[in-house]
Amino acid sequence: MLRALYQFLIAPKAKDEDIRRKEAILNILLVGFLVLALFALCIIIIDYLQLGSTSRAHISSVAIGIIFLLSLLNLSRKGFTHFVSLVFVGIFFAVATWAVYTWGASLPQALLLYAVVVVMSGILINSIVAFVVTFVTTALLVFLTYLHGKGVLQPALYWQAEHAEMPDAIIFGVTFFLLFVISWLFNREIRYALQRARRSERELRDERDQLEITVAKRTSELKEAQLEKTRQLYRLAECGRIAAGLFHDLGNSLQVVKLHLEKLDTNVGQKGRRDIGKAMDSVGTIKRLADNARQQIQQQRVVMLFDVRQQVRSAQEILKHKAQVGGVVLRLTKGVQMMLYGDPVGFYRVILGLISNAIDSYVGVKRAKKEVRITITIVEKDVVIKIQDWGSGIQKSDQRHIFQAFFTTKDIQSGTGIGLYICKEIVEKGFAGKIGFESVPGKGTIFSVSIPLTNYAQRERRVAKNDQPNKQ
Hints:
Heat Shock Protein 90, two-stranded antiparallel ribbon
């Protein structure tokens, strides 16, 4: 029952801790005065019924006071704490001022009431209001004392000649008790605030310790992941060195086979020449692929004019088997022959990586037709190569990281996370171009590579000219 009354009448509803503290103190004071007023009303009514010494005006005045206190309590419960505090303090200030005006500035009860007003102003509102109330009270006492001394005002000073009676002692006691209650409530709320602060500090300390443990664990995991990436790169580098030697030996062997086929071509008939011609074409294709692979592994950079479509076809040939295994069709749309000035091996690596990723996008995706479409166009003064797939797409959360080194959405056996990073480096630094993409998760991705036709070529020619030794 008491708990329900506390929740209904006193428990603060504000979210801010400082306002909650003030609201709780204000509600307790209002409820306390309301109880005193009800008690006084009961005494007055009993006195009126038994003795008839109390007028109905007194009963009406106390009843109006009770209604006023209930209104203030209702406003406080609705969130108007600051306004109610101002009104509440103002009532006490008005009562004290009326008492000083009526009975003189030396009335002890009035001076104690002013002290209560100053204390309540600082606790319920703020220190600035308390300072203003103190200044106004002091100025008002000085002014009224001056008027009383000059005879402008004639206060009722009969009380100075009378001895203190029991009602005076009761008024003093109530005033002192009110000061005690206000101080006790304030100190209690301060104590609760300190307890909450200490509890929050402990929670923050525990959270900090837990965060340090999590960070240390995550750092260890990242170091292990980086170490694993380093191991992978080392293994890839070893494989690259071995593969470069193998491709070199394969190219030499193919060259020998081609020479022998050319000798046979002069000693066979027409049908044999056709078969030998096909064999020589196949050997030439294999040798070209081996040379491209060796140059890619050794990262040889030779700046020259090269055929864009020819490099794209070479990448298609390398990835033909991978596409067939995945049931993917590689289609290079028709277009004009395009020549670029730059590093053909670097360009080849970019196209090879993008087409390979497009093929991988169909892994785990069910499509009636799986296709990777490559288009080569001229947009203003740029060559634009677009590689489009209708595979799994790129998740929105991954799109901003897609060109970062060592970021990959594949498992550890399928990707190292450096393919697109290398592509971006080659396009931007090697060709002064741009690379971007558009992707819809579940519907597919379009990668676009844009390379200037003239600017890069002119710059490379100037660099090549400046690199030549000066002739004496």
